[in-house]
Each structure stands twice: as C-alpha cells, then as structure tokens.
C-alpha cells in the first residue's frame, strides 16, 4: 500500500517535471517552487557575523553553512546582485545545477539514491528498517505514526523502552531527523540511534540503563514528502522544504513567536518560507500534536530532545529568535544549563557549541517552540561536514555514514542522562 502510493507519486512528479521544463526555460514564474536548481548558485561570503547572515537571509538568499566567519550562501542571480549592492563580497560562484550534475549519475534509478549513496535509506527502506528493529526487539521497540505528511505519507515514530507497551513514569527523550529534505545524513543518524539502543540491549550496561529508565522517541523523517521528492527521480534536487504548494520551510513553521523577528521568509518561493500561518504544514502540526500529547497530568514528559540537521558541525541551543541569552522564557540559570550540556556534548563530537542565533536569527523553528512552549532541553545538531563547498555538503557519499553518525553516540548518551537531571 505504502510502496504503491509512493510509486504513483513518483510517476506523477516525473510527468510534472517534463511538462514544466519548457516553461522554466522560457523564464516564467514557476508556482511550485521547483525553480531551485535552475538558476541558483552558491557562494562563499567572508567576514560575516550573525547580524550579517540574518541580513543575507532577509534579502531572500539563504545561508546554508557557516565555518567561522565564512558563510556559504545560496542565491538567485537577482539576490546575488542585491547582496553585492548591500556590500557583501561573493566568492567561489558555483551553479547549484553544476554541483548536482557532478554528484548525480548518468544512469539513474528512479525512486532511489544514486550509486555511491546506496547506503542511505529511502522512505520504504527507512520503514523496513524500523520494522526490522521492532521484529528483532519486540519487548523494547514499538512503531507507530504521528500523522500524515501533506501528500499523505505516514510519519513514523519508534518508541524504545523497557515495557514498551506501557506509558511508564520515566523521563522521555525525543530524537527527530530530516525536517529539511536534502539533509539525508540525519535520517541515518536517527536509524543509528534506533539500532544502537536496541542491539546493545541488554548486553551494554549503559544502554540497558538508558532503555530501562527512559522512554525514547525517534522520528527518522519529519519531512517525508520532501525527502522523497529529493531522491525520487534518481537524481538529487537540492530540495529543502516540504511539498505543500511552493513548499514551506518546516523549521520556520513552528508556533513559538512564529515570524516574529526577521528570521524567516514571507515569500512562498523563499527557501525559508514560514508558511501562511504557524502550523500550516501538516508535518509540523503532527509534531506539535505528538509533543503536546506527551503532557500527562499537566507535566510534559519529554525532557530533552535533539533535532538533527546538516551541515556545519554545530551544537545549537535556544533561542533562535533573539541574540539575548536571557529573555522572556529563558533565565540565566536555564541558559547556563543549555551552554554547559551543549558544551559537554560538543566536546565529544568536536562540533562548535553556540546559541542558535549565533548562526543567524531564526523564528518559528523547533528549538524555540520546544523550549518556549514545553521547557524541553532542546538542541539542534548540524552534522557533518564542517565545510562542504556548497550544495555538495548536503550529499556526502554513503561511506561517511558510519563514522559521522557514530561520532554522535556519546552526545546522545549525555542527553539521555541529562533528561533525568
Ligand atoms: O536553530 C537553528 O539555528 C536552525 C538552523 C538550521 C535552520 O533551520 O536554518 N540550519 S539548516 O537549515 O542549515 N539545517
Ligand atoms: Ca519503560
Ligand atoms: Ca511516560
Ligand atoms: Zn536543516
């Protein structure tokens, strides 16, 4: 059922692309937001700080990675012009289409990752992997769904705990991945957590302690439509958003101070489009409903969370909507705990720890809502690579999966511990 629907979507999307190609070539506005790879280029922009990067995003271009003061920016020709006019220096122009051409194979396998990427799980494979975890460990693993994507795909969640069928009074921890379609390495991160915590049980004492004393929720693909769209033609598209109309940036659609602070785009074609209203995306609404459902007798059971992204190798904590450490909803003591635990995790994986807004201002992201609304000790990890060159950074070959996901094992364990503090 699931796989036949997936095929139908693939065929429809392929037909759609063929029809749209001549329209794009003639330069007409393209309402589905699929113009992306056609005109976009990436640049490196030196000497930026959070304020400058927020300004770059405000112009409608998008900071896709940051290494020290050097930002990697994705922009249309018009946006590049505006950035130069605003005084930014744009170096290393690389057409996104050319980058993708380099990565994408001559021989495509529609519906799946290209050669060199077979180790990544597409949606069907991700579901099969979760099913296998449950089959092998039925006492400690259970799969369900938090709801449906815009196009009707399930968004599965795996629960791991002893007495998994019961809602026990144990601190709960959430790991979610792939809010952004092209950030496929994150899905592998969530699958690693699922496999490690179950295969290691009960032999590994630390894992046994975690599984026995926590209820762990893992959502490997929040953006089911987007991640599927990014690979279903057999070529990567560099897609970020969901697939609702021109696409909403799911990590700008959450309802805490949504759209407040110049940290998201009002333009439906923008890469950080926040949507017409908070929770307008079915995927974020499903996340909200799931997390809200973990309030038991007035107490949020989820105590800690990591939302995995790529790339730049960062550990980020709230808030994103302000550069202030201490503000409404964040005391100095709370901030210090974020910084302490964030720093501790970063020591284990070599990432750079910082407040979310040190990157650039974001509003409507998951971090701000998880903390602002529910006081969940919530982090965003930006995974490998530190510095990807451009759009390529989203597409590391599958031979890095093992190393770059294992790299976060210790940080995951720290968060599992801290959820009980
Ligand atoms: O909290 C944050 O600063 C989120 C960072 C995230 C974002 O949504 O902009 N960076 S990403 O889009 O390059 N994964
Ligand atoms: Ca339990
Ligand atoms: Ca519980
Ligand atoms: Zn992301």
UniProtKB/TrEMBL annotation:
One of the GO BP terms on file: proteolysis
Cofactors that this protein relies on: Zn(2+)
Domain of life per record: Bacteria
One GO CC term on file: extracellular space
Active site: 382 (proton donor/acceptor)
EC assignment: 3.4.17.18
Domain Peptidase M14: 119-419
MF term (GO), any: metallocarboxypeptidase activity
SUPFAM superfamilies xref list: Zn-dependent exopeptidases (SSF53187)
Keyword Protease: yes
Signal sequence extent: 1-27
Pfam families assigned: Peptidase_M14
UniProt xrefs under CDD domains: M14_CPT (cd03859)
The keyword ATP-binding appears for this protein: no
UniProt keyword terms in alphabetical order: Carboxypeptidase, Hydrolase, Metal-binding, Metalloprotease, Protease, Signal, Zinc
Gene3D superfamilies, sorted: Zn peptidases
Function: Carboxypeptidase that possesses the specificities of both mammalian Cpase A and B. Thus shows broad substrate specificity, being able to cleave Cbz-Gly-Leu, Cbz-Gly-Val, Cbz-Gly-Phe, Cbz-Gly-Lys and Bz-Gly-Arg in vitro.
Family named by the database record: Belongs to the peptidase M14 family.
PANTHER family for this protein: PROTEASE FAMILY M14 CARBOXYPEPTIDASE A,B (PTHR11705), SLL0236 PROTEIN (PTHR11705:SF143)
Name of this protein: Zinc carboxypeptidase
């Amino acid at each position: 059922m699931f796989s036949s629907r997936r095929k139908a979507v693939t065929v429809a999307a392929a037909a759609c692309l063929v029809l749209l190609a001549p329209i794009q070539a003639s330069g007409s506005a393209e309402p589905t937001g699929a113009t992306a790879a056609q005109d976009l280029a990436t640049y490196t922009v030196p000497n930026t700080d959070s304020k400058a990067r927020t300004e770059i995003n405000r112009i409608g271009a998008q900071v896709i990675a940051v290494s020290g003061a050097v930002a990697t920016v994705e922009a249309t020709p018009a946006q590049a012009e505006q950035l130069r006019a605003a005084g930014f220096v744009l170096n290393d122009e690389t057409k996104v289409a050319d980058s993708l051409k380099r990565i994408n194979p001559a021989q495509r396998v529609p519906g799946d990752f290209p050669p060199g990427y077979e180790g990544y799980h597409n949606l069907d494979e991700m579901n099969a992997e979760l099913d296998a975890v449950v089959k092998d460990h039925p006492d400690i693993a259970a799969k369900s769904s938090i709801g449906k994507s815009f196009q009707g795909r399930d968004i599965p969640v795996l629960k791991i705990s002893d007495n998994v069928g019961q809602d026990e009074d144990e601190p709960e921890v959430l790991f979610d991945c792939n809010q952004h379609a092209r950030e496929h390495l994150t899905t592998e991160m969530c699958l690693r957590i699922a496999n490690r915590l179950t295969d290691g049980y009960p032999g590994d004492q630390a894992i046994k302690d975690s599984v026995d004393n926590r209820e762990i929720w893992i959502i490997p693909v929040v953006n089911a439509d987007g991640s599927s769209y990014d690979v279903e033609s057999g070529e990567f598209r560099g897609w970020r958003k969901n697939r609702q109309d021109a696409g909403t940036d799911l990590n700008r659609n959450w309802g805490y101070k949504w759209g407040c602070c110049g940290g998201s785009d009002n333009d439906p074609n923008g890469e950080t489009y926040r949507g017409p209203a908070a929770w307008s995306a079915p995927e974020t609404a499903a996340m909200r409903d799931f997390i809200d459902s973990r309030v038991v007798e007035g107490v949020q059971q989820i105590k800690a969370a990591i939302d995995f992204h790529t790339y730049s190798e960062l550990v980020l904590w709230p808030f994103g909507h302000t550069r202030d450490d201490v503000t409404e909803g964040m005391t100095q003591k709370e901030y210090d705990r974020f910084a302490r635990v964030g720093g501790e995790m970063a020591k284990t994986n070599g990432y750079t720890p910082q407040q979310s807004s040190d990157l650039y201002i974001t509003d409507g992201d998951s971090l701000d809502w998880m903390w602002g609304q529910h006081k969940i000790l919530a982090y965003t990890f930006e995974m490998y690579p530190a510095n990807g060159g451009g759009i390529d950074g989203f597409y590391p070959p599958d031979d890095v999966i093992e190393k770059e996901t294992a790299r976060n094992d210790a940080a995951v364990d720290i968060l599992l511990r801290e959820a009980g503090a």
